Amino acid sequence: MRGFSAAGAVIGTGAMVVSLVAVPAALAQSTEIDRTVRVTHSCVTRGAGGTAATISPNDIQVTYPESVRPGEVYTATIWPGEMRSGSETGRFTYALALPPNVDVINVANGGGDYGLLTSSGRSLAVELVDSSGDPHVDGTHVRISAGMTPNFGGDTASHLTLPYQWGVGLHSRENTNFRLPKVEVTLRAPVDRTPTPIKIGLHGGTGGQSNGTNNALQYLHTGTWSLGQRYHYCGRTYPAGSDSLTATAITSDAPLVAQSSAEMIGEDRAVAGGENTSLIARVAVSGASGREMSRGRVTFRRTDTGEVLGTATPNRDSGEAVLTRSFPGTMDGYSFEVTATYDGVVRGGVQSIAGSSASGSLGVTINPNRIAYLVNITQARRLPDSGGSVPVELTTTISRPGGGAFATGLQAQLYRDGQPVGAPRPATSTMTFTDSLPRAEAARTYYYEVKLLPLTVGEFEHGGQTAGATGVIITGTSPTVPEDLEFVDAPWNSSEIFVPGGLEGSLEFGAGSIGSVSPFVTGAS
Q1: What pLDDT, on a 0 to 100 scale, did the predictor assign at position 49?
Q2: End-to-end CA separation in angstroms for the chain
Q3: With a cut of 70, which residues of the chain have pLDDT below it?
Q4: N or C terminus of the chain: which is more exposed, having fewer CB within 10 Å?
Q5: Calpha distance 515→163 (Å, rounded)
Q6: What is the pLDDT at residue 154?
């Protein structure tokens, strides 16, 4: 069984050698480093008949800036050197470890690969993966593979399972030179002026781990059918004095704060009271990842009052922040504009993304063909008894949303216990209604509402009513507490109020809004 070789030299069973690649002199840039790092791989082999594999040093070409400002976006490239297989390989993977103190803007396939094959339905991928090797948008590692691996996530193989499927995923033919693609990693330096350099290295540690989860390079090759397949797990050793492939220093300059923009999108809309509608603002951030952008928040406001309608987080892919909410029917006839502000992002106590206000605004009209007036009973008081009855006076305020004159012909009607009291009257901003209640032996509660009779003027319907009924308690004439005296629930504190008949100087009369937070209004005897 042949292994990998360099320059045609067979190293032996289960072995791989990586040939050196001549690297042209770097085109000088004041802050860019272009160099070759010689990494020594050490492998362990698992599987029937497996023996420890050996790999010669691999020259990895890297480019990266020598230093960057806090918050600066830059790209580093890592390009493994040419390899040669002495036998067929399969499930080939190569993994880099990303620094923990940065935002990953993007990872990409920079090309330059050759001599590699992929199995049907698979393609060579340079992708972010998590610590277990599964693809993840917030991954901490970059892996080169074709989705099928010996281990470290993603359709892993098992030498105990048939069929073996060893020659799948990213693979090569025997005695073939091949090279992996260049990996382009775009990062954003931290903004907190940390002195720690930004480093990119190979995944895993030295020596190669037999469990396959902590290695830079992994692959399978087959033995005879009686021996099955062999797993090669390879760790790495950097040159003396080095602990990574790249090391970019962070200067002590002032941070570069990413600038954001935001815009309201969509068309003006009319919605019915209680109906959900979506308000959308699209955020864009120069030189920042979707992950970093989504750490910020968008606040939606009414432009006329400044009222905050709600907040939403931008989608990391589309940049759209969506607030879905409804408006009460009491706002029927209201029209207002909505705008939004992206609040930016603060990391490490430093502003990393500047906030911005959304350009333009979005018009919202609540039930444009209905104008719902605000109607409130603001005071209820008892007048002197008259002929065994108790006169009641209720003061009511009425206002048109947004101000303006009342529609001609608009009328208000008082209701007691759901029945009209007297005739409707022309609606005005302040009205006083009176009613006469009998004083019976037992105490009793009466409930009042004021409603505007529906009126259509042109295309608009005018109307409105009190939000809840106002309860009025009239004490009884009996000096004892009747057995059937009901407790009256006071909604603002869930307490129970009752008035024994004949206890003058106690609670003679009260009024309160049922279903609201208004307290009872008491009057003198």
Answers
A1: 53
A2: 111
A3: 1-30, 48-55, 153-166, 222-229, 402, 479-525
A4: C
A5: 71
A6: 59
Q: Which two tokens stand for residue 171?
A: 């693979």
| CA–CA dist 508, 506 (Å, integer) | 6
CA distances for 17 relative to 3, 33, 54, 56, 402, angstroms: 9, 27, 8, 5, 81
Classify residue 21 as exposed, middle or buried by CB count within 10 Å of its CB (0-12, 13-18, 19+): middle
What does the alpha-carbon distance between residue 93 and residue 220 come to, in Å, rounded to a whole number? 10
User: For 304-319, what is the HEC assignment?
Assistant: CCCCEEEEECCCCCCC
Query: In this structure, which long-range contacts are made by residues 288-291, counting pairs with CB atoms below 8 Å and at least 24 apart in sequence?
Result: 288/73, 288/103, 288/105, 288/188, 288/258, 288/352, 288/353, 289/103, 289/104, 289/105, 289/106, 289/188, 289/316, 290/137, 290/315, 290/316, 290/317, 290/319, 291/103, 291/104, 291/137, 291/138, 291/316
- What's the full length of the chain, in residues? 525
Structure tokens at 345: 């992002």
For residues 54 and 232, give the distance between their C-alpha atoms in angstroms, rounded to a whole number: 10
**Token code pair at residue 108:** 């990409």
Cβ–Cβ under 8 Å, residues 345 and 301: no
CA gap 448, 208 in Å, rounded: 83
Q: Give the integer Cα–Cα distance in Å for 193 and 212.
A: 36
Q: β-pairing, 460-465 with 370-372?
A: parallel
Percent helix, strand, coil in the chain, to 5, is 0, 50, 50
Q: Which residues face 234 on adjacent strands?
A: 43, 217
Contacts of 247 (CB under 8 A, 6+ apart): 64, 197, 198, 199
Distance separating alpha carbons of residues 191 and 375, to the nearest angstrom: 55
For a pLDDT cut of 90, what percent of the chain falls above it?
44
CB atoms within 10 A of CB 5: 21
Strand ranges across the sheet with 389-399: 374-382, 389-399, 430-438
Q: Residue 63: in which H helix or E strand, if any?
A: strand 58-65
Nearest-angstrom CA–CA distance, 334 and 401 = 6
What is the model's pLDDT at position 109? 96
| Residue 335, both tokens | 């029209």
Beta-carbon contacts of 404 under 8 Å, excluding residues fewer than 6 positions away, are none
pLDDT of residue 270: 86
Strand partners of residue 460: 457
